[in-house]
Specification:
The protein is of the alpha/beta class. It contains five helices and 13 strands. It folds into two domains: 5-104, Chitobiase/beta-hexosaminidase domain 2-like (Chitobiase, domain 2), CATH 3.30.379.10; 112-247, no CATH class. Helix 3 (144-158) runs parallel beside helix 4.
Length: 248
Amino acid sequence: MTASTVLEGAVAVDGADAFPHALRRLKEAFPKIGWNQAGSAGPRIALSADRGMKEGAFRIAAEGGTVSVTGGGIPGVIYAVESLIAAGGSDPARMAIAGGTVEDAPGMLYRTFWTWDHSTNWELSQVGVQEIGVFNPYSKPPGGFLADYKRLVDFCSRNRIAAIVIYGFLRDTHGGIAAAQELCRYATERGVRILPGIAIGAYGGVYWEGDHKYNLSTWLKANPQFAATMEKGVGFQLADLSFPLNFP
């Protein structure tokens, strides 16, 4: 039987620059260990990605005072670290790791949440919460988009959910391109893909809401000859809005 490895005191983290969220999670889970403070001869966790592994798969090999974590991309490394944290015990100054080698991978290839920006509610203290709807205006404060989706990204990262589809991804009322870029940076560090929900001829086009050349309504105003109309409107129409909206 392979002896277990115990990490305590000062522990080096090789690869921390490439996987900053892995180091962040280790510090959060075991705050009394001196992560990334050991010398070259001390105990260590070595983080690396292997392009030959499937995305999300990982291997953990513990021997002596060294724990080697190899992952299929950033997701694999993050999933491995979350696995170590889950099995590492409750002592904030001591992390226990089973000896030997463990290999694992997500059981499903496609693991995705499909969402609308206006009714994704993870920061429940803010005003403007909506629970249902399609094409809804965004009723939360501008910062609500990142407040909700960063919490959702954290959940996905810890539970091996690979991606989040977001309809309404680009919308002026919650930060437009700058907020979208910030969310993508945040999600990439945590091994989660952001997949904008886009329909070229519907759903607002690429840029869901705003005076932007890739917004469908803006484009049709400049190119009305390409607009399609129905013989009879479906449901009731709200024609006075700055973007087309109807409810069947």
